[in-house]
Amino acid sequence: MHLILATPLKMRLPIIITSLLTLHLVAGQEFQCSLEKIDSSEDEHCVFRDVNLKAATAGAKFSYPAGAPKPTHVAFLSSSMKQVPSNFLNLAGPELKVLRVESCGLQSVAISSGLEALYAKDNTIVTVIVHQSGPDGPLRTLDLSGNSLKDISNVTKCQAVETLNLSGNDLGDTLELNKFKGMNNLRKLVLARNEINYIDNTGNTNLESLEDLDLSHNNILPSDLNIQIFYPLTKLQTLRLNDNLMAQLDYNLLLSIKSLKTVYLNGNNFDCTYLERMLQHLQANNLQTPPGGPYPCKTKIMDGFCCTGPVPTKPTTPGPIDPKTTTERANVPPTPVPDAGKDGDNDAGSAPSWLWFGVGAGVAALVIAAIVGIVVWKNQQKKAASNYRVPPGNLELS
Length: 398
Description:
The chain is of the alpha/beta class. It is built from 5 helices and 21 strands. The strands form 6 sheets. An 11-stranded mixed sheet has the order 2-3-6-8-10-12-13-15-17-18-19, with no helix packed on it. A two-stranded parallel ribbon has the order 1-5. A two-stranded parallel ribbon has the order 4-7. A hairpin with a 2-residue loop joins strand 20 and strand 21. The chain is elongated and about 155 Å long.
């Protein structure tokens, strides 16, 4: 302003006129939405397009199609604004249930009293204004991913939220799970891509409904991760630890999370041998370890997992039996069966024929030798009797 006043009038006039025209254009802008089905939802939305409010927003006017019922689902597409215009929020009122303001350049966003779902990803939001709080609020889904949030104290006031996506913000290198204390309806919590180094649960916060916790794509080291911080999460079924900086893990402690069914571990710095041993142990204890992906591994790959060092060799195991082999045979000629009369034939449990022939010949030789021996012996006896016969008359009787 001081610069404008110090400028000669002739030079000030274009600046003043431009400013007045800008305010006039903004004040005179009117936007009407059209009922459409957008890609990301099956529900019909009233869609505002090309709402570009780079200056003041108070004068912009918004309207719904004439004769149509007041819409409950509204989306802003291809738009640019620093905040959702107050004139629109006044028009929407408590009937607004679902609001989509993605990639609109927002720096702040308001959660109105009747809102059930807010999709505000990929903006530059640093401030969240909440008009509902406590466990009885209507908000169930809140997507604030891809923003610039550092303080989430207002967000966690919405204690009825069931799905909370805070990925891609700036939550700091240390994350305390007790920040979410009281969010007992929370079933899915996404904290990926926040450059988190350390996780703690000093108050042993029990998020009693939490089933899916996503800590992927952070900077978590094994020395900074105590698996026992997850023990109070008694309903936890899925834990995503993929794409961190871990080379080791107290993986046996994962088995003490009794509700845990699935853990994602890919994209870390595990040695291939260590990784194989860990996966085998977890899988043997009924904990699923899907690789996810596909992963563009910069190192080695083993069964879909990225790892470092040599890949361990695996013993050869028989492949699965082809069902066809039980009903169909391969087209191979049958092995010929020898004739029964040929040498070398074998019946099951019988001796070969040449053995029987040898036994028979041996027995015959023994019989012939015995007969010849007997004949020779009898002839010798006859000769001996004739040589030693006593003459008659010389026989003395005693």
